[in-house]
Amino acid sequence: MSNNSSSLCLTDRQMMLAVNDVERLLIGKIVPFLLLFGVSGNILNLTVLLAPKVRTRSNKLLAALALADIVFLIFMLPHSLAHYHVFAFSHWFRYLYLTNKIHLTAIINWASAAAIWFVLVICVERLIGIKYPLSSRKNKTFLSARFLIPFVVIVTGILTSFHHFSYFCATKYFCDGTQLHAMCVRTDSPRWFRNQTNPNSELVKAIARWGPHVNAILVVLLPVLLVILSNIMLICTLRNRQQFLIPTQSSVKWENGMSGTQMRTEHKVTMTVTAIVTCFTLTQAPSAFVAIIAAYYQFEDEVLVVVSSVFTTMVVLGKTLNFVLFCLSSTTFRQRLLRRGKGRLSTRSQSQLTASSGLMDYSSSEHRKWSRLASGSSTAPSEVLPLRRLARGATVV
């Protein structure tokens, strides 16, 4: 079925992988620049957050969030490239893209779900850390990043796995095998290609039917609501803690066992987390609620494409802004980033200096050696051979 051929030739408009002007503008023109900046920024985030001396639980969770965002942005790139004529009409790109589009979308949803739950875990971890620091230390094993990160990745992977087989896409060649196109149908659809009976089992149909509902509740609605609630509580806690952040009281121990200096450090970390979570809520929540509505209400295709394009761009923008938020809200992050940048430059310049110095030393030693030979200076008998011995084929060691 997937390799059927037809002599009918499609028009350029029919061959385009995106025919909506809004989608072409947002996903095709704006999103690629956001992807480039977002991947670069999150890589810089990882270099700072995973530095050996600052691998705290909060930083490890933030690094996991940055890694999830990188995966999301990288797998979003083929969707953006599909809006360009050079890729849309390339046979190899069309084949790879159309046959793997469902799996690309599944990985994007997995990374997005993991990012949502990472944000929730980070927000709750900060809330517990700043309100109940002693309790946080007692439950260090349960709240450790070594346990939380794999747990979130595995659970979200299971909850979003239905995307891999919720649709079946059939490819077909047109215009005597020179044009490749595809059409997708839901796995649980009662109608199938060529009016055939749906060949999928009842289990696959049930997963494809109920998967979006479970995803809407456990992956989208519940974590987003909890993130909003946790962020509000975090902001209120920050406002209530302002009275403790007095510089002259840095050596005083408070009821929770923390000194003023420790509390100010926790406050700064929490401020950064609050900025990231607030940005996440503003850019991700609209897309989440639209996904929930789309699962229960059938939009017109044109309207759904426009709405999805707008909110997808907002999601990409939110994942891109994490680096900017780190730089704006954390003085420590800026200092560490500059320090690492200067360290890389100094290391590179030092290696170049060492290489050039070694070359100069080698040249100087060779020059001194040949100077001694030319001047007849005293050397060991084994270092210089008479010319007649060289003529007989002797070698110089």
**CATH top level of the domain at 10-166 and 230-244 and 258-283 and 305-338?**
Mainly Alpha
Tally of DSSP β-strands: 3
Structural class: mainly alpha
Q: What is the CA–CA distance across the termini?
A: 74 Å
- Listing every helix as H and every strand as E from the N terminus to the C terminus, the arrangement reads EHHHHHHHEEHHHHH
CATH homologous superfamily name of the domain at 10-166 and 230-244 and 258-283 and 305-338? Rhodopsin 7-helix transmembrane proteins
Task: Please name the CATH topology of the domain at 10-166 and 230-244 and 258-283 and 305-338.
Answer: Rhopdopsin 7-helix transmembrane proteins
- Architecture of the domain at 10-166 and 230-244 and 258-283 and 305-338, according to CATH? Up-down Bundle
